[in-house]
Amino acid sequence: MEEIDRRIVTLLAHDGRMSFTDLARETGLSVSAVHQRVRRLEKRGVVRGYAAIIDHDAVGLPLTAFVSIKPIDPAAPDDAPDRLAHLTAIEACHSVAGDESYILKVRVASPVALEDLLQQIRASANVSTRTTVVLSTPYEHRAPEVATDPVAVQDGHRLTPD
Q1: pLDDT tens track for 100-132
Q2: By 3-state DSSP, what share of the chain in percent is helix, strand and coil, each rounded to 5?
Q3: Closest by alpha carbon to 110, among 64, 63, 54?
Q4: pTM for this structure?
C-alpha cells in the first residue's frame, strides 16, 4: 500500500465521516484524487465500512461482558457462531486459541439480562461458558497505526507493494 493510501486510511480510522475535501487538504491531493483512492481502498476491502460509535449507557445497555465458550461435546460440529447469530446482545464473536473456542463480547441492560443471555447461549450452542464482567473501559475503538512496511499481509498471504 502506498504511503498516501496509508495516510488516508489513518485519517478515516480516526474520523470515518471526514469529507473528501478535508482528506484532500490533509493529504495534499485533489478532491477527485482522494475520492478515487478512497473508492479503490473500499473496493480492495481495506476500508470495509463506516459506523456510528454508540454510547451504550445512553441506549440502556450499560453492562458489557466477555463470555468464553467451549463445546460440551468436543466432537460436535464447530458451528457455535451460526447457532448464536440470532442473539443480538452478542456484539462480537472471536475464534480464539486456548481452552475456549470463542470469546463473545456482549452488551446487556442488567445482571439479570446477562444471566438470561448466558442461558440462551448455553442452550443455543450446547456450550459451557466462563464470563468476565467489565467494570470500566478506559479506551475502546482505537484507530490502528497503519504499517509503513511496503510488504503487507492480507488473509495470511504476503502482498507486494502497489
Answers
A1: 999 999 999 999 999 999 999 999 999 999 999
A2: 35, 20, 45
A3: 63
A4: 0.78
